[in-house]
Specification:
With 857 residues, the chain is mostly beta strands. It has 4 domains: 210 residues, Jelly Rolls; 201 residues, Single-stranded right-handed beta-helix, Pectin lyase-like (Pectate Lyase C-like), CATH 2.160.20.10; 99 residues, no CATH class; 226 residues, no CATH class. Helices cover 4% and strands 37% of the residues. It contains 5 helices and 64 strands. It has a 23-stranded parallel sheet that branches. A 13-stranded mixed sheet has the order 23-35-37-39-41-44-47-50-53-56-59-62-63. Strands 2, 4, 6, 7, 9, 14, 15, 17 and 19 form a 9-stranded antiparallel sheet that branches. The longest helix has 8 residues. The N terminus is likely disordered.
Length: 857
Amino acid sequence: MRSTLPSLAAALTLALALPGAAVLGAQEASALDGASTSTAVFSDDMTRTVSSGLGTSTSGGSYTVSDPSAFSVDGGSALAVVERPGTSVAARPAAVSLADGTSSVEFTLDQLPRSGGGVYLSLQSRLTDAGRYHVQARVDPQGRVLIEALRLNGSQQTSLGRLYVPNFTAAAGTPLRLETRISGDQASIDARVSPVGSTRTTWDLSVTDTAANRLVGAGGVGVGVYVSSSSPGQAVRFDDLTIAKTSSDAAVPAPAPTPTPTPTPTPTPTPTPTPTPAPTEPAPPTAPTVPVSTTWNESGARGDTGAAAVGSTRYAVPAAAVYVDASAPAGGTGTVTAPYASIQTAIDRSASGAVIVLRGGTYHQSATVPAGKAVTIQSYPGEAVWLDGTERLTNWTPSGAAFYSSGWTYDFDASPSFTKGQADGTAPGWQWLNAAYPMAANPEQVFIDGVQQREVSSLSQLAPGTFFTDTAGDRLYLGTNPAGHEVRASTLTKALSLRGEGTTVRGIGIRGYATSVWMMGAVTVEAPRNTLENVEIHDTATTGLFVGAADATVRDVTLARNGLMGLGANFADRLSIDGLLAVENNSEHFNHAPVSGGVKIAKSRGFTITSSAFLRNDGPGVWTDQSVYDTRISGSDFVENKGNGVFLEISQKVDFVNNLLLNNVDHAVKINNTGGVNLWNNTIVGGNRVLNIVQDERSANDASVPGHDPRYPFPDPTMPWVIRDISVGNNVIAQSTGNCTICVEDYSHKYAASDLNIRLNGNVVQRDAANRPSWFVVWSRGAANVNPYVFYTFAEYRSTTGQDARSIAVEGRTVTDAAGRLLPDIAAQSSAVALTPPSAVVGYLGSSTPTIGARFP
C-alpha cells in the first residue's frame, strides 16, 4: 500500500475570510500576461517515462514530492494518484524560489468524480515552512468548477476569495488549464481556469491580501491534488507545468520545506443550476463594479457557510429581464440600455414572474414586493450590488472636543419590544434592555471608515468612538474627528418587504438599515414560498431577516453583526434553512431573553436547519420557543455563542443529529419542556451544563401561559410541553464549566427521569477532574423527593439508573482536539461504545455505521 502523508485536514483550524483581503471579480489581464518582464525559470512537458516520482523536468530541474509512489510519468503526462478520500499529494520543483511570478499547469480527469465534494486541483506559491498561498480549482461530479485563493500561516487556513468559474464546465478526458499570478508585498493574486488552447485575457478571480500576517518574500511553487473525504479516490493527469518570474527575483534554490499536502478545502454550497434554455447575455456595463464583500471569521466551524462574496454570483439573465441601475437617470424603461433607477419602480412596472436584474452599485433604497406579484430580484453576473441604508455625512463643524453635522432630522422609534410604543418589561427574564447597554434599541447607526460607533444618550457622555443624536437641535455629534475619514449614518429603516408569494431574492448584499425592533427585520418575508439565496445582511440596527410565512427557503445566506439577532421566524411552517452563517449577532448587547442571538423560531412546524454555522453570537445560536413542532437540525456548528448553543423550549419532536457544539458560554444544549427528542452523533464540548434537560412549572393545559400556537386546538395534544421520550446516543459530552455534565431536573417536582423515557447510551462522557464538576450527573426523582439524585461518579449513576450501559466516562483529560475531533485512542473504542443509530436519524448521517460524535469532512 502506498504511504500517504496525512492531510492538513487534521491540523487546520479554519479562520476563513479574515480582514485584509480585497476580492475582485473577472479582471482584465495586464501586460504581465506574456510581457517581456516575464522570465521563464521552469518548464516541464513530461516527455519521459518514470515509474516512481517525477524525475527530471524538461528544463533540467528535479522535484521534491510528498510521496514518490503516488507519482509517475508516461505518455507525455504525469499521473498523480490519490488512493484514499480525504488525502492529497503534492510536488514542487526543488530549485525554484520566487516572490512574484506566474505559474500554469494542465490537468486532465479521465473521469469526473463519481460522488461527493469532488477533486481539488491546485497551484501553490511563496511556499515555505511558515506557510504558502494556494489557488485551488474544485471539480464536482457535475463538472462545475469553483476557484478559490487561500493563505496558510502554519496551521491556520484563510480563504481570500472564491467563485464558480463562469461559462465553463469540466469534462472527462478534456484537459483544463489552471493559471495563477502573484505579485507585490500586498500579495495580489490572480487566477483563472480555462480550456487548453484558450486565449483568454481576463482573470476569473483577483484578490489582494493586505492582512498583517500576509506572506512576503520568496518561496517555492508547487502543484497538488486533493480528493474530498466524501468522494472516492482518483487519479489525475497533469502536464505542461511552467513557472516564470515577473520581477527582479532570481531563481535561487528554495529553502526546501517538506512538501505540504493540499489543504482541506472549504466546503461550498451547491449553486443554483442554470436553466436549460440558453439565456441572452446582455452587454457588459460601461463601468463594471467589482465584488466587494465584508468577510467574517468562521473559525471553529467544520466548513465554509453563508453567502458567496457579493459580486461573485453569476445567475442566468433571461432575454426579457428588467434592468435597474442606481446610477441611471430618471425616466428609464427597464431595458439594458435604459434601466430604471429605482428597484421599486421596476417592481411596480413588472408583471408577475419577471426577473429584475440589478446592475452593480450601491442602492440607498427600500422596496416592497406587493401581494399578488412574484418576481425574482438578482444581481447582474459578476457585479456587486448593495442595498445600503446609510448616507455619507460631510458637513462637519468642530464644537469643543466634539464635531457635529447639522440638519440631522431623523428621529427613529426606539421601542424595545415587538410592540411599537410599549415600554420595556419589568419581570425578570422579560427585560429586553441590558442596563449596561441602555441605547441598544435606538436604531441610529454611525460608521467611520466602516467601523461602527457606539451611541450615547447625552452630549456629556461623548468620547472618541461614540456618537450622540440631538433631535431637538437637529444635530448628530461625533466624538472622533471625522477629518480624512468617511462617515456614514443610517437614514433608512427597511430594505425589503416581500409580500408577494413565490418571490426570490439572490446574489445581493444588504447593510446599514436603522430597523426598529417592532419592524421585525430589515428584510421581512411576509408571504409563502419566498426564497433568499446568496444574500448577505449585516450591520442592521436590530434583526437582519424575519420570516413570517410558510414554505420559505433561506439558502446560503449570511446574517452578521446585526443589532438584536440574525433571523427571527413566527408562523413559518416548513421553513428550510441551509448553508446559513449567523455570526456575531446581538452586537447591541440586548439581554439574551426574551429574544437575541443567531436564530429564534416560534410557533412553527416542520422546519429544518442543515449545514449551517452559528458563531459567536451574543445569545443563543438557535432557539426554538412557543410550540415549535417537528424540528430537524443536522450537520451544523454552534461555536462560542455567549448564550446557549441550542435552546429547545416548550416545543416537541426534534431531531438533533451530527452537530458540533464548541465552547458555548451558557448551556451547550438546553432542552426545556420539550419532548420527542433524538440527540444523536453530536460532539458537545464546553458550556455551563453541557447537556441540560429541565422541566419547569409551565403547563400546556394552562391557557394563561404564553406560547400556545393559536392555529391549533387548546389543549394541543401534539404539544405536551414535557421532557418525555428523549433519546441520547453516540454523542461526545465533555468539558462542563458548570456544576454537572449530564443534568436532568424537574423544577415542578412532578416527574422522575426514570418515568419520562429518557434514554442515554453509547456516549463518551468527560469531565476535567474528579471534582470538576463535582456532580457528574443530576437525575430527577420527581414527587418522590424534591431533591434529585446527585451522582459524584459515573459508576454510581450507571448502577443506580441503568443508563449509559455501553458509554465510557473519562476524567482528567480531554477526549477531543481543539476542533472537536475525537482523539485517536478514544475513537479506537467506537466499536465497543457506539450503537447502531435508529432509523429516524440514519438519513442525517448517510449510513448506519456506528460512530461516536459529529462527523468531519
